[in-house]
Specification:
Elements lengths: L3 H13 L20 E2 L4 E2 L1 H6 L19 E5 L15 E3 L3 H10 L9 H23 L10 E7 L6 H8 L7 E9 L2 E12 L8 E9 L5 H17 L1 H4 L6 E4 L1
Antiparallel strand pairs: 1-2, 3-4, 5-6, 6-7, 7-8, 8-9
Helix pairs in contact: 1-4, 3-4
Length: 254
């Protein structure tokens, strides 16, 4: 990302709009509220977008924006309930440039259509990095479940985690966003908490960076506690905390 305006727009988007991995998608058997949004990505469905072209609030959308949706590498759990009108896919689908633009317009913003390509690329890259962090934890259980999948998700930007509150008490800034992802570990639901922090870019290669704090929800059960303690102890004993304390888990956005 080579434009500070795009960086600011992305930070605002992450804070105020539902990104692809943000709101909860109910598993089969759970109650689901009626919504006009596509449950697979919390953006208007392609069908609803076509119907909305006759409505006044869609008149200002740019006809030049790309409508292509990129497939993520994040596998969908077979227990996840997806809209019937959506094509069945094995991985979660990211929204198109047009979907982002329309969502921002509905929020009352005046986004620049020329920035959408960069915003979408950044959004998708950050979500891919989040899944990579989740899989780093899940590899501890690859013997019992070699193929975990994402079951559902929820955006909770105003619900600060206990860890975030503790760090804030110690003088650190609060995260600008939080997601809860629930992984289907071969039938067992495992919740991950993801806190997003603004970070200082390192290496001079990017104008913007963010810190991703991804970990199993500590209070959800003894296995999450054991995983957290094991990883923390291994990290302390390795000495990596001293060598990379200023750059660990910092993701440059380029």
């Amino acid at each position: 990302m080579d434009n500070p305006r795009v960086a600011s727009m992305f930070a605002k988007l992450a804070r105020d709009l539902p990104p692809v991995i943000s709101e909860e998608v109910p598993a089969k058997g759970e109650d689901k509220a009626t919504t006009a949004l596509n449950a697979s990505n919390l953006m208007p469905s392609e069908r609803d977008m076509k119907q909305a072209t006759t409505r006044r609030w869609w008149w200002s959308r740019s006809p030049k924006l790309d409508t292509t949706r990129e497939s993520s590498t994040i596998p969908i759990s077979p227990r996840t309930e997806l809209p019937k009108h959506q094509a069945q896919a094995s991985t979660w689908q990211y929204p198109s440039e047009e979907m982002f633009y329309n969502a921002m317009t509905r929020k009352g913003w005046q986004p620049s259509a020329e920035d959408m390509q960069q915003v979408v690329k950044i959004h998708n890259a950050v979500n891919e990095r989040c899944w990579a962090h989740v899989m780093a934890w899940e590899r501890r259980h690859c013997d019992s479940c070699p193929d975990p999948k994402l079951l559902k998700f929820r955006g909770r930007p105003q619900d600060f985690s206990p860890k975030a509150r503790l760090l804030n008490f110690l003088g650190y800034k609060l995260p600008f966003d939080r997601h809860d992802w629930v992984v289907d570990r071969c039938g067992t639901e495992v919740r991950y908490v993801i806190d997003f922090y603004n970070a200082v870019p390192f290496g001079g290669s990017a104008p913007v960076a963010m810190h991703l704090d991804v970990r199993p929800a500590l209070l959800d059960g003894p296995q999450a506690l054991l995983d957290r303690l094991s990883v923390q102890m291994a990290w302390v004993l390795s000495g990596e905390w001293a060598k990379y304390r200023s750059t660990a888990n910092v993701y440059n956005i380029t």
